[in-house]
Amino acid sequence: MASLKDQIRAAQDIKTQDDVEIPEWVPGVKFRVRGLPSSDWEEYQNRLSKMRIDTGKAGGAEMQLRSNKALIVAKALYDQETDELVFPDPREGVAILGRKNAGIVNGLFNLVRHLSDDDKSFEQKVKDAEGNSAGDQL
Question: Class of 15-119 per CATH?
C-alpha cells in the first residue's frame, strides 16, 4: 500500500476544460485550458501583494495587474490536439497576450481561476469535497 505522501503526489487534481474556442484569435481551433497548481497561484498572489502604485505614472498599477493575468493565461493555455503549451516561454506569452483584447484575456483568466478552484471559499471547497473521501474513491 502506498504511503499517504505517495497517494497525494499521484492524485490527479488539476482540472481541465477542452473545446475552448477563441474565434477572434484562431477561428476553428479548440484549446485546452488547465487549472494551475498552488505554487503558480501563490506566485500570482505574491505579485499582487508586491504591486506598487506609481503615482507619477498613470495606469502603472493597472498595467501590472493585466500582465499578471496574461502570465496566468500563458501558463494555462494548451493546444488541444497536441496537449502542448501554446506559450512554452511564459514571458513571450505575456508579451503577446498583453497586446490582445483585455476582455478575452480576462475571460480566460477567470476560467483558469475557476478550474484552479481559486474562486471558491474554503467552506465551499469543503462542501464540494464531502463524499469524495479516499474510502469512496478506492
Answer: alpha beta
